[in-house]
Write a sequence for this structure.
């Protein structure tokens, strides 16, 4: 469990984002401490994915403030957020579909190396050991030479997560990491995520619909509704919150 | 000049192709194949009649030009509907520097590819602000503007009569010798292109080309990376354009025009998207058809059109894809 005595690692104040007349985020307040595993839940349309997209730089917030490790980051682009140590996965696994599994992971290492402008193939050769070790860790080493288009949805999700790890992100934003996976696969993946996040001391924010996964993984849960934080607390507190049960848990 | 024997990692088709038993180094330049092909071409340059040699020179120049475009189409995720600009403007740049500004011939020739690079930088900067069809239309607009200027600014560019005789054609060399010059420069260009694609930069370009959102989330701004690819492509197109200008000793508005753009697009499609050798195969096939069929059949472009349709329908991965499938099958039977 994260130490909550100091300053929060990520701090969001009054964040708003609208699409036309629809207020997707209507003054979100959120504090996440370093080393925490935070689940964000809520009914469809609550603004969960929009929040992740603003935090990842895919969308720009209309107003409000985001601080990460004391730095104020408003309206940065995704590649700038990435440079600050924010890594993310997408609802639909986002990988390089025409490359092999190996090259996908290689691309992640290549990005993390900071030498992406280099013309030296030797740099790529030298990454082989580390790339294979990472593929081993996410159990994809045997598929290294397969084109990503040909591997299963679940494997792609694992690959994407492994790639984000390889970029050396400190804050991971996972948007429905287990969406579309079978029950067994789902728990395997979340176990992998927890293992890696804990052992590396990363901070994790994840959006998830599977309540079992949420209660198993999260240190702390944020419930969103109508673009705002509706409730927040330890899993036990959220589970016993009558209002939450009504709008979300009970309504399933 | 051909490294097609080494399979590119992002290969098209051949799903689940068995990993090679012995791990080949996918990054190294296949010097052996390159050397053999170059030796054969050199032999041809000296043994075959001049008309064939002329055709070979054109094929080599267009192979480089098409391969430069292929860097955009197959790897960087961009489409250029005006790539002749970076080909023809090199010839214009060199012709204008030599005739209008009195630059020494060699300096003017050396500047050709750099002029293309500058245009690619300026136009590319505009085009990468947009994506997909909008970016493609902007490349077309840039090309049309360039063509209009070159066509109408008579005092400076010679208008539709172009600029002639700014260098002795083929530098005064025999066709065979000029062919050798072209062969070495084109081979160097292809090796350079191979090195780019199989480098950290090339991997970045491919990543951005295949999935800009994922690449951005890993730290790569799309615009910056695509602009680099565009400028590199412009430079290599300019090398080809310079060789072409010197070959003929002249330059016309056609060199930057839409016909050349379409020619080279067709070559890449015939050769096969997502394959390194697309430009080489495409240029050979296109020019062979151009020369052979045009000889017997007045409406040869119809034949090219039909062949292109058949390629897109039957083998979207073009000739390279077909060759790859045959090779895979041969290897399969040999090892199986």
């Amino acid at each position: 469990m994260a130490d909550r005595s100091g300053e929060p690692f990520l701090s969001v104040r009054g964040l708003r984002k609208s699409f036309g007349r629809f207020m997707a985020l209507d003054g979100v307040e959120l504090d996440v401490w370093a080393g925490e595993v935070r689940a964000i839940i809520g009914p469809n349309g609550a603004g969960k994915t929009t929040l992740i997209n603003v935090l990842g730089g895919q969308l720009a917030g209309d107003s409000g403030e985001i601080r990460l490790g004391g730095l104020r980051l408003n309206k940065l682009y995704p590649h700038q957020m990435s440079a600050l140590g924010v890594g993310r996965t997408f609802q639909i696994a986002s990988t390089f579909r025409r490359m092999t599994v190996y090259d996908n992971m290689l691309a992640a290492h290549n990005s993390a190396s900071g030498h992406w402008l280099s013309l030296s193939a030797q740099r790529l050769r030298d990454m082989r050991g580390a790339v294979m070790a990472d593929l081993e860790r996410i159990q994809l080493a045997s598929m290294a030479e397969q084109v990503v288009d040909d591997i299963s949805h679940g494997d792609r999700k694992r690959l994407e997560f492994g790639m984000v790890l390889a970029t050396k992100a400190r804050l991971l934003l996972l948007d429905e990491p287990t969406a579309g996976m079978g029950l067994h696969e789902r728990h395997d993946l979340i176990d992998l995520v927890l293992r890696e996040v804990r052992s590396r001391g990363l901070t994790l924010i994840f959006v998830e619909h599977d309540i079992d996964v949420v209660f198993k993984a999260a240190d702390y849960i944020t419930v969103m509704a109508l673009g705002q934080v509706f409730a927040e607390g330890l899993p036990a507190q959220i589970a016993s919150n009558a209002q939450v049960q009504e709008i979300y848990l009970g309504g399933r | 000049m051909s490294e097609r024997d080494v399979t590119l990692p992002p290969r098209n088709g051949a799903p689940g192709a068995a990993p090679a038993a012995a791990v080949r180094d996918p990054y190294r330049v296949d010097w052996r194949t390159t050397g053999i092909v170059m030796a054969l071409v050199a032999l041809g340059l000296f043994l075959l009649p001049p008309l064939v040699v002329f055709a070979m020179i054109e094929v080599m120049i267009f192979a480089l030009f098409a391969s430069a475009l292929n860097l955009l189409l197959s790897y960087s995720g961009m489409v250029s509907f005006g790539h002749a600009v970076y080909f023809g403007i090199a010839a214009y740049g060199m012709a204008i520097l030599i005739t209008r500004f009195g630059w020494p011939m060699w300096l003017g020739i050396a500047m050709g590819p750099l002029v293309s690079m500058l245009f690619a930088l300026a136009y590319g900067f505009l085009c990468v602000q947009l994506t997909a069809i909008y970016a493609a239309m902007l490349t077309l607009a840039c090309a049309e503007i360039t063509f209009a200027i070159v066509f109408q600014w008579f005092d400076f560019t010679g208008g539709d009569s172009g600029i002639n005789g700014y260098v002795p054609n083929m530098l005064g060399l025999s066709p065979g010798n000029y062919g050798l010059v072209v062969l070495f420069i084109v081979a160097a260009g292809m090796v350079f292109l191979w090195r780019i694609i199989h480098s950290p930069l090339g991997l970045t370009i491919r990543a951005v080309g295949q999935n800009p959102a994922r690449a951005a989330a890993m730290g790569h701004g799309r615009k910056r990376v695509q602009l680099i690819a565009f400028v590199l492509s412009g430079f290599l197109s300019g090398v080809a354009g310079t060789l072409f200008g010197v070959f003929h000793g002249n330059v016309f508005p056609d060199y930057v025009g839409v016909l050349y753009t379409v020619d080279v697009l067709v070559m890449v499609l015939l050769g096969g998207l997502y394959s390194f050798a697309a430009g080489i195969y495409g240029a050979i096939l296109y020019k062979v058809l151009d020369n052979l069929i045009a000889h017997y059949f007045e409406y040869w472009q119809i034949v090219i059109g039909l062949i292109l349709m058949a390629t897109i329908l039957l083998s979207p991965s073009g000739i390279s894809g077909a060759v790859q499938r045959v090779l895979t099958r041969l290897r399969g039977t040999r090892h199986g």
Q: What stands out?
A: The mean pLDDT of chain A is 93. The beta strands of chain A are 10-19, 22-32, 37-41, 63-68, 71-72, 86-89, 171-175, 203-207, 220-225, 228-233.
